[in-house]
């Protein structure tokens, strides 16, 4: 993912191939959000006017870079997880034994396919929180990019939720479904925090 040209990746996303798909797109949105946080930090660090916020910006930059790398990894993981689901559905089902093995493989693959967007949602929530942490001390010339970072991360989170839900719908393990849904609810409140951050930025820009 890291070495692949953006245009080539978008061509693959637009093609008839099943991967990359929406899950990978969600992770890439999270990566964009994290990259924008890094940009704001880089354009603030070292400027005397914002010296009192240097430590906050430096810490946020390190977090954002880590999140961006992890998001790229999730984009690749999502494609692999979906391919595993497709492969499981293609397993033979001529005998009862094959049917049982196929069903077990499908369920295992669905668990993996739900786990990746769940991690994407968690990561996107982190991006939103890191973006919020830099608003107070950010270079005022680029605070609009904090709002764009929050918007991108919010999109990633909401997309992650949808991709978790679509896999949950086919999972037969009720207990695992409930546990996954409970984990998901830990991250969804971050969408409200993103909206609040965007509103704060827009209010400042209107002054």
TrEMBL record:
Pfam families, sorted: FTCD_C
Domain Cyclodeaminase/cyclohydrolase: 6-184
GO molecular function terms listed in the Swiss-Prot or TrEMBL record: transferase activity
Domain of life: Bacteria
Keywords attached to this entry: Transferase
Family annotation (InterPro entries): Cyclodeamin/CycHdrlase, Formintransfe-cycloase-like_sf
Protein name, as recorded: Formiminotransferase-cyclodeaminase
Organism: Amycolatopsis japonica
């Amino acid at each position: 993912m890291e070495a692949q040209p953006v245009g080539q990746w978008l061509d693959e996303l637009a093609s008839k191939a099943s991967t990359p798909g929406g899950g990978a797109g969600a992770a890439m949105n999270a990566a964009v959000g994290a990259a924008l946080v890094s940009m704001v930090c880089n354009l603030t660090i070292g400027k005397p006017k914002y010296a009192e916020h240097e430590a906050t910006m430096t810490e946020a930059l390190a977090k954002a870079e880590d999140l961006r790398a992890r998001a790229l990894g999730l984009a690749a993981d999502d494609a692999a997880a979906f391919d595993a689901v497709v492969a499981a559905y293609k397993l033979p089902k001529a005998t009862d034994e094959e049917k049982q093995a196929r069903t077990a493989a499908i369920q295992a693959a669905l668990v993996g396919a739900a786990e990746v967007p769940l991690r994407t949602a968690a990561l996107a929530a982190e991006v939103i929180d890191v973006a919020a942490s830099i608003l107070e001390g950010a270079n005022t010339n680029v605070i609009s990019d904090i709002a764009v970072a929050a918007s991108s991360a919010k999109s990633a989170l909401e997309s992650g939720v949808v991709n978790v839900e679509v896999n949950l719908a086919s999972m037969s393990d009720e207990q695992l479904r409930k546990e996954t849904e409970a984990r998901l609810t830990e991250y969804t409140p971050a969408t409200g925090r993103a909206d609040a951050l965007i509103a704060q930025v827009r209010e400042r820009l209107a002054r």
